[in-house]
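Write out the 3D structure for:
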Amino acid sequence: MTENAATVTRTADLLVEIFRDVLGLPDLTADTDFYEAGGDSLTAFQITGRLEEVLGADVPVSLVFAYPTPRDLAEVVDADHGRS
């Protein structure tokens, strides 16, 4: 696994935990769709708020809507914020 792939995996794991907690779905996976899991604008703001706490960077809530799975969102967050 490349370093970039490992970073995306760590971020995806973090996002899975955040999504699980915010949406109240312990079985949620990295490929679970935010909308299909019952996500709405309030939970999207909760997700980005938690992510901002960890990253120390602003994460636009629009990213949750545009990239609705933890895996897809992780790729964008890592590209935009260089999480390592």
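Helices lie at 3-23, 41-55, 62-66, 70-81.
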